[in-house]
Amino acid sequence: MKKQTFIISIITLAIIIIAGVILFFRQKEQGDFYIDTAKIAKGKDFLLVDFNKDFFYQAIDQPESFKIKGHLRGAILPHHDLAADFIAKFFVQLAKNQTVDTFIILAPNHSDVAVWPAISTKTYWQTELGPIYNQSEILDSLFASKKVFYDEDNFSAEHSIKVLLPFIQNYFPQATIVPIIMTSKHDLSMSRSLAKELSPYLEDKNTVVISSLDFSHYLDLETAEKNDAIVLEAIKNKDYNLISNLNSDYLDSPPALITLLELMILVDSDDFELVDHSNSAYLLNNNFNTTSYLIGYFSN
User: Fold this and answer.
1) Over its length of 300 residues, how does the chain's per-residue pLDDT go in tens digits?
2) If you write DSSP's letter for every residue of 17-46 in order, what string do you get?
3) What pairs with residue 175 in β-bridges?
């Protein structure tokens, strides 16, 4: 009797183990989010960074598409999963061009709710590729000067930073980030003040500023391209008054764009090089309800 019970127990245990292994690999194949617990820093608060693995892993296998002229100081990138190829092409070239220790990321707060017009987080980020840490010295300085406030509750759901992080982790695994999201209440004077506060950190040539922006939203392709032309002209002319009055028909964060433009002026890198201009219409073969992408950089 004892022998029979022992055999049944062994069979049951084997079934449980086999079922667990099958479930694990099925989840991996279906793209469910998986975290290697060995890569999680113990005792740390972190935000899980989920992402579209199909888009990401196809995108990072990219041929060369353009050459960066000079030393890159700032860039405009989309935060739409569908634009993964454009994001990857940029990071491939950046990794070939220079070392980056810190990325300052300026992005929209899509909920437009926060304790202050510019907020950040003290937590670190966990991707399936490993952790990404904040540059706490810069963030604490911004908090002390009241340019950026910590607001964990309103920051955690925002996707405009998270979309870029797997690419940063893949191409710059040792880099830290300074994540800042902005509401529509972040006015022109605040953007200028934040740019001035950030400019000393760009004395370090291994620091790069990214504005994570999607441009025209939910329009037909013809209207979207007309609006993109208006934004590109405003970028060229540094027309802050025009940019600050644009809505989501043109871009999703005027403050993030203005802060970048002002910062590039302060570090003498204000010539914009457009390397890609596209639209979800071309990727989905649907000319309505579109999102447009402008990808470019500033260098010296």
Assistant:
1) 545 555 555 655 555 555 444 444 443 333 333 434 443 344 457 787 888 888 888 888 876 678 999 999 999 999 999 999 999 999 999 999 999 999 999 999 999 999 999 999 999 999 889 999 999 999 999 999 999 999 999 999 899 999 999 999 999 999 999 999 999 999 999 999 999 999 999 999 999 999 999 999 999 999 999 999 999 999 999 999 999 999 999 999 999 999 999 999 999 999 999 999 999 999 999 999 999 999 999 999
2) HHHHHHHHHHHHHHT-----GGGSPTT--E
3) none
Query: Could you please report the per-residue DSSP string of 193-222?
Result: HHHHHHGGGGGSTTEEEEEE--BSEEE-HH
Geometric angle at alpha carbon 158, from 191 and 156, rounded to 5°: 110
Distances (CA, A) of 37 to 51, 104, 131: 18, 27, 11
Question: How far is the CA of 262 from the CAs of 60, 127, 209, 241, 244, in angstroms?
Answer: 31, 32, 12, 13, 13
**pTM listed for this prediction:** 0.85
DSSP for the chain?
-HHHHHHHHHHHHHHHHHHHHHHHHHHHHHT-----GGGSPTT--EEE----HHHHHHHTS--------S-EEEEEE---GGGHHHHHHHHHHHHHH---SEEEEEEE-TT---SSSEEE-SSEEEETTEEE-B-HHHHHHHHHTTSSEE-HHHHTT--TTGGGHHHHHHH-TT-EEEEEEE-TT--HHHHHHHHHHHGGGGGSTTEEEEEE--BSEEE-HHHHHHHHHHHHHHHHHT-HHHHHT--TTTBS-HHHHHHHHHHHHHTT---EEEEEEEEHHHHHT--SSEEEEEEEEEE-
Please report, as a single letter, which amino acid is at residue 185. K
